[in-house]
Amino acid sequence: MIHLRGKKFTSIFVKFAASFILVGLIPLFALSLFSINAFTGYVERYTTANLQQMVLYMSYNLNSAFDQYNEMSKIMYTGRYEGFVESSSLNQTYNVNELEQINNIPIDSFLKTVLYSDPYISSVFFVRESDDKIYFQDKGNRGLDSSLLPYRDWRRQMNVNPSKVAIFPTHPTDYYGDYKGNVFTVGRNLIDISGKVTVNPKVVGTLFIDVDVSLFNKFFKELNLGDKDELYLLDGEGQFYFSSRELSDQDKEKIAGQSEKGMMMISEPIPFLDGMLTARIHRASLFQQLFSVRVTILIAIGLSSIALIIMGTWFSRRLSAPILKLMKQMAKVESGNLDTQVEVRSNDELGRLSHSFNRMIDRLKEYIDEAYIAQIKQKQTELNALKSQIRPHFLYNTLEVIRMNAVDKDDHEVADMILSLSNQLKYVIDYGEEKVGIGRELDNVKDYFYIISVRYDQRFEYVSDIAPEVDMNWQILKLSLQPIVENAIQHGLKRKGRGTVGITVEKRGLDLVVTVYDDGVGMSADTLARLNLVLNDAEAPGKNVGLKNVHERIKSIFGEPYGIVINSREHIGTSIVLTFPILEESAPERTEV
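Structure for histidine kinase, as requested:
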């Protein structure tokens, strides 16, 4: 058989199926891969171009926003908001230091006007140059801790070019106390231009405008960034004005100007900052839908390939199956099994070959019958004759002769033991019965117990209690009580030395209940639990084979609700309850022996 199976995979049918599959798979794979590459290339180019256009549009909007705040800071000079007047002829030094005004209005009113001129401005500061007095307006009515306000550092940076607006990158607003929001700050010096022009401009004070970074979020939401995408706004010196996630200084140094595997970088300039808006897009997330389409196409290719393989295999098997079956039957005949036939399903060459094989088997069987069957039958007859000499009645008659011999010698105890043993043998060897009347089973127990009591010098006593309503012809499982009585003697009474085994029979509803009890040593709760587990778990190993055998036989013959229930208490005794349905005993067929 191994030889035949090995050749099966090198047969011409397998080669035919392989050729059929390859001819179909190669064009399928080639066309599918070309289609996938063309489609994915187009989608990637379109997606990248669209994303580039969106970043360009965003950079334009951000640059316009910075220009807007630059123009807003110039109102200290132009006075174009809220009815301000031209201030080029005013003495700003006198106006700020003596009158505490900007453009002829109080500084606090000027700051409040600036504060509410734009929804993203969160607070406005003006620091007077002469005494560092801070004027402050805030939308949230938050307290200002001037010691934490870094205006001195900011002014030092602005001293490089006093007349130019300064943009300070995103930073936390720790100077608001517990509030930890992030802003970027626009700073512009107020220069007194009323007098003579000097080499070093005369700075009267500095205006600082805190702009909430939610301004950036308004623009960045248009990109619909994924969880793994990143967006950064950097100035020409590499300072981060905004990032889509929290970054440490080490991360900032690593990210600035660098590409990363699996990330696509798109950058557009921000002229106002002389910086760049950089988007780092996670390729896998960006083209996730494309990957899904690709996977779908690959699954379709896989299913088509599987269908093609199945069809090729099925076609090959249809051709090779009759020949393989014939080869298997020939192998059986070769091993000596002639009880085989090949099913003929067609009239073609394979059908005629199968028919010829069947005729050959029939002729071979006829030849074997002629040569050997007669001799085999003769041997079988001799064997049956030998078996017939050993009959149960021969054993019964022998035991009866021995018993009568004991009676003649007045050894009545031995005679009674032989009679009990004979009765037991008749009861046990009477094959074909699974259910017997309760009376017959109790008689067998009585015969068994008599032998046991003689063997153990009458140390054990047997009692029975039959309820009046019990019909002795009601059926129970044959040989169900004797193993339990034997178990009670072996495990309960022998260890105690003496005791009593009792049997009660009663009717409970529609059931016949038999209880076998003893006053032996009993068993512990753990032992009882293990025994019940063995009874109810068919796979559980155990030593109480007799009990388990009786329990499973009862369930098998009478049904699942019936069987054995064990109760026991250590040093008190054990009781085993057997439950049967009430069935009338049918008249037994008797054979004369």
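The first helix runs from residue 2 to 8.
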